[in-house]
Design a protein that fits this description.
Blueprint (H helix, E strand, L loop, with lengths): L1 H32 L3 H19 L2 E6 L11 E4 L5 H9 L4 E6 L8 H8 L2 E3 L4 H14 L5 E4 L17 H9 L3 E7 L1 H4 L10 E7 L9 H17 L22
Parallel strand pairs: 1-7, 2-5, 2-6, 3-4, 3-5
Antiparallel strand pairs: 6-7
């Protein structure tokens, strides 16, 4: 059965998705240039992401929709199980948002160009000046219900368990006085782990937790990190909830 599945994925699904990716990217670029940037950042990519899931036999379920208001801007923070996190969130998070993305991702043909045109936020930590510019751009775009999605672990897990959180997303939420909304992604590791390129049919479960409001203090920021980590981990299966105790500590001096 698996050889037939892989043949379908590489010979039928992959060519279809390549064409769809190019068409959606071009649509986003043109719509953004014509002044429909907000629509371009949300609607075409949502359809594209859902197509990626359906054509690869990946089902996505959503719990906690009632915890968010489409008129409010949030900083969404999610665990990062694998590449399919992108499609699950893009396709099924019921809220308009922008990604905070590594600078290098904007160089990807079509996809990166479309992200730039749609106004996704480029993260450049090459200097203090560039970090300030990133923050200024984010502040100008996070309004009227537009939110951002960040993976505070920084990279995908190797074993399905959560990695330590970095402070950047939480500091941004404190600076902009935006509530944090934790999102648990469960099942994406089984669909497509970091160690491989094959996509396995399965179910990805998204759980939207209640917003966390920061009080602007250093202690409040640390508590928001701990609470977000705990909330996200609470919706994971038991075998993925045995991470280190001090899992919200910054991992580098630049995050302190």
């Amino acid at each position: 059965m698996k050889p037939l599945l892989r043949m379908y994925q590489w010979c039928i699904a992959a060519p279809i998705m390549l064409v769809a990716t190019i068409l959606v990217s071009v649509t986003v670029i043109i719509a953004s240039l014509l002044g429909a940037r907000r629509w371009a950042a949300h609607t075409p990519p949502k359809l594209w992401a859902r197509l990626w899931c359906r054509i690869m036999f990946v089902k996505v379920t959503l719990d906690g929709r009632e915890n968010i208001d489409t008129r409010t801007s949030y900083v969404f923070v999610a665990n990062h199980q694998g590449a399919y996190d992108i499609f699950a969130i893009y396709g099924y998070l019921p809220h308009g948002f922008l990604w905070m993305m590594k600078k290098s991702l904007f160089n990807i043909p079509f996809v990166g160009w479309a992200c730039h045109a749609a106004g996704h936020i480029k993260v450049d930590r090459s200097s203090a000046k560039q970090v300030k510019h990133t923050m200024d751009v984010a502040k100008s775009r996070l309004k009227d219900g537009t939110s951002i999605v960040v993976f505070p672990e920084g990279s995908r897990t190797w074993d399905g368990r959560m990695r330590p959180f970095k402070r950047g997303a939480f500091k941004l939420a404190a600076d902009f006085q935006l509530p944090i909304v934790p999102i648990t992604i469960d099942g994406a590791f089984d669909v497509m782990p970091r160690s491989g390129y094959s996509i396995n049919p399965g179910t990805i479960r998204l759980t939207i937790h209640k917003p966390i409001h920061l009080d602007g203090t250093h202690e409040g920021l640390a508590e928001a990190m701990r609470q977000s980590y705990s909330d996200i981990q609470s919706a994971l299966p038991a075998h993925l909830r045995d991470a280190a105790t001090d899992s919200t500590a910054p991992t580098s001096e630049t995050e302190k």
